[in-house]
Every structure is written in C-alpha cells, then in structure tokens.
Amino acid sequence: MSVPAHIASxxxxxxxxxxxxxxxxxxxxxxxxxxxxxxxxxxxxxxEMLIRQAPQLIEQLMELAASRDVxxxxxxxxxxxxxxxxxxVLGFLRFLADKPTADADPLTVPMSWxxxxxxxxxxxxxxxxxxxxxxxxxxxxxxxxxxARSPEVLQRLLDESGPVWDVLDSYSLALVEGYRSAESxxxxxxxxxxxxxxxxxxxxxxxxxxxxxxxxxxxxLPTRGRFVVVALDADTGGSSRTLCSALPAHAxxxxxxxxxxxxxxxxxxxxxxLRRLVDWLSVDPGHRVGxxxxxDSLADIATAYHFAETALQTLRYGTTGVAAFDDRLLEAFVxxxxxxxxxxxxxxxxxxxxxxxxxxxxxxxxxxxxxRCGCSAAKAAERLHCHRNTVLNRLRRVEALTGxxxxxxxxxxxxxxxxxxxxxxxxxxxxxxxxxxxxxxx
Length: 442
What we know:
This protein has 442 residues and is of the alpha+beta class. It has helices at 5-22, 43-52, 54-67, 78-96, 108-120, 124-149, 151-159, 161-202, 209-218, 240-245, 274-281, 301-313, 329-336, 338-349, 357-372, 377-384, 388-402, 409-424, 434-441; strands at 224-233, 253-259, 262-268, 288-291, 295-297, 321-324. It holds the Pfam family RsbRD_N.
C-alpha cells in the first residue's frame, strides 16, 4: 500500500510546523513497515470493518477526549464535535479501505476543519491532541480486528503499519496546514483593515465617530491625546523600523503605514515632549523626515498629515535631515506657494540672481549673515571671518544689483523671505525677454 504523492507533498511542506505544535505524542510507537512480499494487503478489509463500526467509534472517541479534559470540548457543541470526528474518521478509514469519496482529495476534510477551527479560535494544540487520541484508538481497533482473525493477519498488519501511520501523519499535517492558512488569511485581513483605517484617518474621516471608535480598537489609538504625524521619505532608504529603534521603549505609541514612496506614522506622544521626539529622530542624519505639529484628536490627523508632508518638502531636494513643521513655518509658506515664493525672490533680488554662481552665493550668504546679526556689519564680519568693510562693500553691491535700499524696512522683509525661498526651493532663473534686456541696458 503506497501513500499518494499529494499526501507526501503536504507532509513535506508542513512537517516542521506540525512537529513544533504536537510536542510529546500520545500515539503508541509501532515498528517500521517491512517490505512487501507479494501477499495481498489486509488493511483495506480491516478498515472496511471499522467503517461499519463508525458510530460506536465516534462515541468512544468522544468519551476518551472528555476524560482527558480536551480544551475545545468545552468551547463547542457536542453535535459539532461529533460531526467533525465522524468526517475525520470516515475519511481516514475510507482511504485505507480504497473507497474514498468520489472526486475528493482525502486531505480536504482535515484541511477544511483546520481552517474552520482556527476561525473559531480553537487552539491548535487542542485539535492535535484529539487527532492523536483518534489515531491511537483507530490503531487499537485495527490491531484488535487483525488479532481476532488470525496471527498471520496480525503479522501482516504490523508489516503494513508504515503506510497506515503515514496517512495518519498526513491527516495531522493537513490539519495544521489548514489552520495556519486560516491564520495567515486572518492576519492579511487584519492588516488590510488596519491600513484602511489608517488611510481613513489621514484622509480626514477621523471626525466620524464610527471611524474613531474602530481606530481605537484596531489601531490601539485613543480618541484624544497628543498626536503627531511623521512622514518618512522611503526613497532615501529609511524605514519606520530604523526610526523606531531611535525611540526609547514605550516612549511613544506608533502606528505606521507605507503609502507609495512614503512611510507615514501616527504617533501618540503620551508625556514625551515633541522636542525630545525631534531630537531622538535626528540622531541618524541619513533620512528625510517631516514631523507635524501636535494635534489633540483623531479628527485632526488629516491636518497633522498635511503639516508633516509640508515639513518634509521644506528639506531641499537631495539633502537629508529632520524637519519639524513648527520650526519651519516660513519654509512652509514657501513650499505651499512655490510660484509666489520664486516670484518674490526674483522681485527682491533681480539681477543678483543672474550673477555667476560664486558671486551670487557670496552676496546672498553675506546678506543672510547681516540679517541674522541684527543688521550689524561688524557682527556679520565676525560670523563670516572677513573685514567689516568687506561686508559693507558686498551690501552696497546687493543694492546696486537690486536697485533697492537696505534701509527700507519693507524691502528688508522681502529680502528675508526671498532668502528663505532661495534656500528652500530649487533656484530657477526664468528666461529673460528681449524687452527686459533692452530696458535694463537703457
């Protein structure tokens, strides 16, 4: 008697999982099957005899499992358990008797019950224990039936025991495979549900009570708290796992979602100051990260997501770093209206932007240092490591190129915003018309 190829395949695929789950076996160890000597097998006739005794076998197995306090026998109805045992036992015996159900894979029953019991929350170890008890009972009945016929039949059963145990083992492995398959499906469904809820929050549906309530259960996020959203540019090679490793254990509660080229995190800060979070995430400078300002409810997650994306965009292309929205509000104005910002830069700096790059960068750096030093040429000179007169000469050159006076408060403000635009956005030099060139020449 040989084991079908598909049973051997299931056994090979799932043997490691089943061995881990079964632990110490309740099955009586039997000697190995001996090579066939050409005699007709006795197993089919013995199995057919047991098929006729199936009702009594099921009741004996019910009593045996109940006496062993099998866990899921307290969870499920007796009728449901009887049906499951009857299908398992009859499927096994029919296969041994060479009378399987027409067009049916003999492993369909254990795989289906494995999936079904997993969906019910029945522990796998409990199911495998019943399987072992059934295997022992069936072997004992086969043994008793063979012994009742003759010593020769009993010896033939022992010689043919290997395939019998192969089939029993394959049933166990199919049960495990069905169970694990259901677990995998449940995990995928749970992940899909979590992703859908996450998307609903950042799309603004956190204002809906039902969405907030479900997010509280599925994502573990409170309805109200101290929330921030983190946007990580996945194209730079960063990952949420790397960022989370920078956070002390249990410091914040985080839920992450990969969307296109972004990893988005919703973080509940608890008692952690936002500034400390920024410092923790800034330890590794190799990422591009945007962090929103705080919001206090799930209803505001969409706003926080917009802030995080805006903060990320304030990092100039090709650079890395951590940008906190509240620290970069001026840059946020620039990136949310890039065309206006670039027009402002062109209006404020005029021909300065058309200078050779080296000269342009020196003049802009000097102007920036002068503003940062309270419009003091002496302090700007110290910052730039040059003479005060050098700073003054550069500032006069700025005025000559722009046609505006740095004594004008409004022009100073325009220059400061234009500097933010130049440092944040790609520096573009629009094509100049012949009318503009002619007017400047005159």
